[in-house]
Design a protein that fits this description.
Blueprint: H1 12-21, E1 29-31, H2 41-45, H3 74-85, E2 87-89, E3 98-106, E4 109-116, E5 123-126, E6 132-135, E7 148-156
Antiparallel strand pairs: 1-6, 2-7, 3-4, 3-7, 4-5, 5-6
């Protein structure tokens, strides 16, 4: 999000900063975590809060799974999620028994991932190294920074044990 200044948990100041970057949110969001540079939106899409997933150069501190091309192309991010979630979806709406991720892109490059899972009625996003937020629409984050939603992915929800989205290496 750019400023490099830590933003405290859901305070008027934090909300003002987030709304200035994503004006489409209006007041319709909740901050659900403190800033955390250990993980990002892609990791969060896999329910991983211990690694920063991005196709950076070796030694950059970013994790990227073997076998997935190390680039930011939308097609590559679709491949990354197809490797785990199996199928694409045309619907942004909740589907009974499925968890979803939305891949945002601009000019063919992936910019952000949001997730919709379990019975939570809101989409969840990790704002780079900043906070996690809950938001009611995918359109609320579309714009200058994340582009627009380019692909929805879905996977049948697990019925026993463990979180819905996890990366299997």
């Amino acid at each position: 999000m750019g400023t490099g200044t830590p933003i405290p948990l859901d305070t008027p100041e934090a909300r003002l900063i987030i709304k200035s970057v994503f004006p489409g949110l209006g007041d319709d969001f909740t901050i659900s975590s403190k800033c955390d540079e250990d993980y990002n939106c892609v990791a969060w899409g896999f329910n991983n809060s211990h690694q920063y997933w991005w196709p950076g150069p070796k030694g950059s501190g970013c994790y990227w799974p073997p076998g997935i091309p190390p680039n930011e192309k939308l097609e590559t991010f679709i491949l990354l999620f197809e490797d785990q979630f199996v199928e694409r979806s045309a619907s942004r709406e909740r589907e009974e028994g499925f968890d979803k991720v939305a891949i945002y892109a601009a000019n063919g490059k992936s910019k952000h991932v949001a997730r919709l899972w379990l019975e939570d009625p809101t989409w969840m996003s990790k704002l780079g190294p900043k906070q996690d937020i809950h938001h009611h629409s995918l359109e609320a984050l579309e714009g200058r920074y994340y582009g627009s939603v380019a692909q929805i992915m879905k996977r049948k929800r697990r019925t026993r044990g463990g979180p819905a989205f996890t990366f299997s290496s």
